Model the fold of this input.
Amino acid sequence: MFRARRIWVTAAAVLAVTGGVSGSAQAVPPTDTGPFTATATADDGALPPGWRITGTGSARQLVWRSGRQVPMGDARVEFHAGDRLLGVPRPARDGRTFRLGLDATTPAQLTDLHVVAGGRQLDAAGVTSASGGGPSQAAPPRPAPLPPGAVDPGRPGTYRTTTGEYTLDPVRLPGYAQPVEMKAVVVAPKGATGKRPLALFLHGRHYTCYKPGTDDITGDWPCPTGTKPVPSYRGYLRDQRLLASQGYVTVSVSANGINAQDADAEDAGAQARSSLVRLHLARWADWSAHPRTAPAVVRDAPAADLSRVLLIGHSRGGEGVNRAAMDSLYPPPAAQDGYHGPVRWKIRGTVLIGPTIFGQNPVADVPSVTLLPGCDGDVSDLQGEVYVDGTRGVSRGAALHSAVYVEGADHNFFNTEWTPGQAQAPAEDDFYDDPDQRDPVCSPGTATRLTADQQHRAGSTYIATAARLFVAGDDRARELLDGSGRRAPSADPARVLTHAVGAGRRGGFLPDGQVTVSGGRLCSAVDPDPAVACLDDSDQGLSPHFAQWDTSKEIGRRAVALRWSAAGSPTTVRPGSPLSLSGAKSLALRVIVPPDTTGTRLDVSLTDASGHRATLGRVRVDSLPGTRRTASYWAREVRVPLTAATRAGLDLRHVKSLSLTPRSRSGRAWLMDAWGWRPGTPPVTAAALPRVDIGRLTVKEGDSGVRTYRVPVRVSGRGSGRVRIYLGDPATGRDTSRLVTVRPGGHALDVPIEVKGNTRFDYGVQHDLFVKAVHGAVVGAHHGGVTAENDDPMPTYTVTPVADRVTEGAPLRWKVTLSAPADVDINPGFVVQPVTTGPELSTLDVDPRWLRENSGEEPAPERPLSKVANLSLWTTVPAGRSSVEIDLPTVTDQVTEQPESVLFRATDENGEPRADGPVLTGTVLDPS
Done:
């Protein structure tokens, strides 16, 4: 994860649109250097401060530039227009400028622009000061610690450890121009006999190179002369030593070469990281079979047991190891993959630390533990919760999927090489602390915020807990992960809370399925309509359960919302058909309550198919501490025994409904799900499922007619399953969706796209398709489509005077004429130049508002216009039109002056004036 000096940034400058020329002229993008000082047009005449449109043809771009450097992190920087995701921009080398190809998007569609990363808005003025809870808000008192569990996996084992590294030849990965390193650090137990389980770590996206002795850090690869690679892979040595002391062979691999190149990858590097992980596993399988070929550090370690592998990934590394687990069970398309050999290992589980999941495609049949840092300043929406929620109903449900919420933890401190005072390269706390508006939950020094050592110790403990359960098979560790309300004392003083799905759960009341609700409402996790969405803008903070995906609206991803103003009004949930809770010991519910609330009490009742009803008992739900900057709307797991239902004679094989009756005076709550629960960790066998991968086809639009193309879709594997596809409309930005049953060799997932040919210039059209598993399927590459490229030349333009000699108070006016109309807006621009003869028009001779809008400068002190930095004059020729007039308003004064002139000249691709380009010249006279 790339980080820099500040995560909360404010757009401090208004950005310019300049144009370049060729012969007559064509608009082209300027450089990223220098202040941006004017705005481009939208439907209301101007883009917001900090934005501009640049470029020609396929290079037409929407550009945002911040007033400060934006840290380069694991969370994607995204451009949004209202609730519509425009796309993921490419960062420039200055760390401040971000560019997104616009394709067919017109300025009229660019309303309510904002920049988002990990659920937080980056471009809003005042977002930093508004982000905390305010100086008067205080975090609630910390509750008493949970009781300890039966085992404490955070305690070191009996083995001493040995450490060493290996470096192999770099590898080529599809879509990556530069080779990627094969480098790792190994920590292994000394004196351990027999084959030992293998734990592999993969770090996230961070700076790749640094200059020792300075604060200089870059995202280059390979590292330039005079710089060294950032050793992110060495950041988990504490975790490795703990596991090695318990008998595990551990390896942490370097991925700098991917981090430096994944900005152009449609999947943000998930497939490349999977390939890298499996390439290392393949080498370990080779060395296990042929020990003499292994590097010295591997030969000195006990033999690795590749049938017992645990994968641990941090941030984008988490998404990478999730994909590696998927690819090990369900092979990816060969053309996209960097590993093409047999699978000679078995992944028993994954640990995902503050992970991304851009594809929202968890592997349902591989057990997982997801650590959610409560003060994550990078992946701030805690989207990793989808590794739990997104597995429900997808496969057999035997695998445990646990979410571990670590209060007071940030994103970076799980890796010592990203931690100030411990890292070799420059490092920082990713949760930005505004000294003028400290956050009562997450600012350093608050009662809830962990130190770096406390956080890392908690992380090590829960990594070891996952190993103890998934690899060693010790069921006593399960209660530390599955919402049973037990703690591992080695993680103290961190407050760690858990909930889970899968394992011993069955008969789920799932809002995502066929269900009716009375007394409450079914709400949508992602919907632009506040009346439909589970949370809206008035709710302070975020929910990991409702993390945004690539579409502005999702179908079927829901919760049950409760709101009451008096005790006693039940909310009843009725599934489409009765559920069986037979054999369950308790009913386990995952319930969200607003942050900083305590004592929400709910009576829980069941009704069977014959109408018999029983109240099981009362549960109390307390919230997490939270502010506007945290994702604290997180479900607590509560359980109520089923003994009352058995005593009342309920038929637990046919349960018709679940009712929740508030016993608090007023409040709000959201039911995520409810399950019949019993202890135990059942064995997991991966189901034979079809796998869906979406590709992208790029075509030329042609000169005439309509051609039909099909989105490339690959369905592999076995069996059949259901997925939901979302097809974006490039004209409206809205999505249409449908459920599709897929099977290898089938043709149900057939998405035709019509491309209309023409002979007028446009910016091309991108048709996007997204897919998500619903039941009985897995999804690899979730995003693709058809891109129709423009193949017509961009019109040139000429300039003719309309009123180029006027008296004071009248506007200078010119006409800009295109050589041919276009199907999109064309944005010519000009930059001011010194006049060649006579006096020059000054800042006091023009409309002050016009001057501010076009340069950001004030009229005083008086100076020639050519001395005004970054003064530009621009216009937009609307689609379908061939000309437009452009004005420069002047003002009258009481000073007797000679005629004064002004000169603007079109610019080249670097924003510099072209000697052979069109010019705007004008003269202003005193009144006669």
The chain has a mean pLDDT of 89. The chain is about 10% helix and 30% strand.
